[in-house]
């Protein structure tokens, strides 16, 4: 009797999500809101422990890291200056200053506190939520400014979920860097992406090319690097089979940047 | 009441271990399913009713940390908890080797059922994690057998 009741309950839960892609049910939101703080707590505890270890017992490492970071800041400053100068060709100094200050205010640094429990390439959980200003569809980048995904529901007070570009259900408008061949990028369930809807007749795309966001999807701003084409083959269909290796690395995905403003409006 | 505390502790431990494994390496989540460990352990220790309820809670919890269809994990883990608890009451699966083989079979069936539902009903591509997922029933059976045998020894020595 109990088993029948539980099975009926689960089938009811599953049927409530038809059609697929609807907003999460209250039940799902409640589970996420109750248990995601546990993940948050665990990750915070171990991060604090690591900080303690690094701060008090591992000075040698700190010194080396300090030097590395100084070098990196130097390079980043130089790069920043060169880009500012390049921008000056197109816009006046005040416009650029406004643009840059708006962008720097809009970056919310966040830690990844959990991976998808069923298939890791689908989503991650962040330690920032609605209280930090995180909203649905905000763009998420990795440490080097490369596309990771976008924020999706459910968003709890201090945690949120990000749909990765490697998720099969995701869709990103992209183009190849050299000849601006346009396509739609989706995940292939194995940690890589497929660039879809590029016709076989299109000869202007090849392996090794970089793929960036096109902005045509109305969601991601244009020009964010996404990945590199690792394979470009043809089969019986009208379209090429293009496999793209995303730039973001799962092993380095401990910290990400959530962009809290609509960059499309700023550019 | 004690059983309830144990169950809550088990669920929290599953979430903690799941988080830690993901932080060590995301690929480890293909190999280890901490939610299955809790369901199987409680099904063996407290039989079918407790197993089915733990299966529901842990399955839904697993679903809530995933982008997949909410309820599929709950459904398969409910069946896992109930069938493990019911079978362990009918036949003696306490000896270590028998325990391991039994757990290997039920966790393989649960994984196959879950993949079947995801693939055939919801038309989603399956992630195999470079084949790592095939070893998940093996690691589950090994860890739960060890845990169950240790707890059995502790209880025997305590009484």
Description:
The complex is a heterodimer of chains A (267) and B (159). Chain A contains 5 helices and 12 strands. Chain A has helices at residues 2-15, 26-57, 59-88, 93-105, 263-266, and strands spanning 107-115, 123-126, 139-141, 147-155, 160-164, 172-176, 182-187, 193-196, 210-213, 225-234, 240-246, 255-259. In chain A, the strands form 2 sheets. Chain A has a 6-stranded antiparallel beta barrel. A 6-stranded antiparallel barrel of chain A has the order 6-7-8-11-10-9. Chain A is globular. The model of chain A has no long low-confidence stretch (mean pLDDT 83). In chain B, 79% of the residues lie in helices and 0% in strands. Chain B has 6 helices and no strands. At the A-B interface, helix 1, helix 2 and strand 1 of A face helix 1, helix 3 and helix 4 of B.
What would the keywords be for this entry?
heterodimer; A: 267 residues; alpha+beta; Thrombin, subunit H; six-stranded antiparallel β-barrel; 27% strand; B: 159 residues; mainly alpha
Write the layout of secondary structure elements.
The complex is a heterodimer of chains A (267) and B (159).
Chain A: H1 2-15, H2 26-57, H3 59-88, H4 93-105, E1 107-115, E2 123-126, E3 139-141, E4 147-155, E5 160-164, E6 172-176, E7 182-187, E8 193-196, E9 210-213, E10 225-234, E11 240-246, E12 255-259, H5 263-266
Antiparallel strand pairs in A: 1-2, 1-12, 2-5, 3-4, 3-12, 4-5, 6-7, 6-9, 7-8, 8-11, 9-10, 10-11
Chain B: H1 2-24, H2 28-31, H3 34-64, H4 72-90, H5 96-121, H6 136-158
Helix pairs in contact in B: 1-3, 3-4, 3-6, 4-5, 5-6
């Amino acid at each position: 009797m109990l088993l029948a009741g539980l099975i009926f309950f689960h089938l009811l839960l599953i049927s409530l999500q038809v059609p697929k892609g609807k907003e999460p049910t209250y039940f799902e939101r409640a589970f996420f809101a109750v248990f995601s703080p546990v993940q948050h707590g665990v990750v915070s505890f171990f991060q604090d422990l690591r900080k303690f270890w690094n701060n008090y017992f591992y000075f040698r490492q700190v010194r080396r890291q300090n030097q590395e970071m100084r070098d990196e800041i130097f390079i980043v400053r130089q790069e920043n200056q060169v880009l500012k100068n390049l921008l000056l060709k197109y816009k006046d100094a005040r416009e650029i200053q406004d643009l840059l200050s708006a962008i720097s205010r809009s970056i919310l640094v966040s830690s990844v506190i959990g991976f998808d429990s069923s298939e890791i390439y689908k989503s991650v959980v962040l330690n920032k939520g609605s209280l930090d200003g995180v909203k649905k569809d905000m763009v998420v980048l990795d440490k080097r400014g490369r596309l990771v995904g976008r924020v999706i529901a459910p968003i709890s007070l201090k945690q949120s979920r990000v749909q990765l570009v490697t998720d099969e259900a995701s869709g990103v408008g992209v183009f190849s860097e050299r000849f601006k061949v346009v396509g739609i990028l989706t995940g292939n369930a194995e940690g890589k992406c497929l660039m879809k809807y590029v016709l076989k007749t299109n000869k202007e795309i090849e392996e090794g090319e970089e793929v960036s966001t096109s902005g045509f999807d109305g969601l991601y701003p244009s020009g964010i690097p996404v990945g590199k084409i690792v394979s470009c083959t043809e089969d019986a269909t009208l379209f090429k089979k293009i496999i793209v290796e995303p730039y973001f690395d799962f092993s380095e995905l401990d910290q990400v940047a959530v962009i809290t403003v609509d960059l499309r409006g700023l550019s | 009441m004690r059983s309830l505390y144990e169950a809550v502790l088990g669920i929290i431990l599953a979430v903690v271990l799941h988080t830690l494994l993901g932080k060590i390496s995301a690929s480890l989540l293909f190999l280890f399913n901490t939610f299955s460990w809790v369901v199987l352990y409680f099904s063996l220790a407290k039989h079918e009713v407790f197993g089915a309820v733990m299966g529901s809670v842990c399955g839904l919890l697993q679903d809530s940390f995933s982008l997949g269809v909410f309820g599929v994990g709950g459904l398969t883990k409910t069946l896992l908890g109930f069938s493990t608890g019911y079978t362990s009451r009918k036949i003696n699966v306490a000896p270590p080797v028998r325990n391991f083989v039994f757990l290997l079979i039920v966790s393989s069936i649960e994984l196959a059922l879950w993949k079947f539902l995801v693939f055939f009903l919801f038309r989603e591509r399956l992630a195999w994690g470079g084949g790592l997922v095939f070893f998940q029933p093996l690691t589950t059976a090994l860890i739960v057998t060890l845990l169950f045998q240790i707890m059995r020894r502790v209880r025997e020595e305590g009484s």
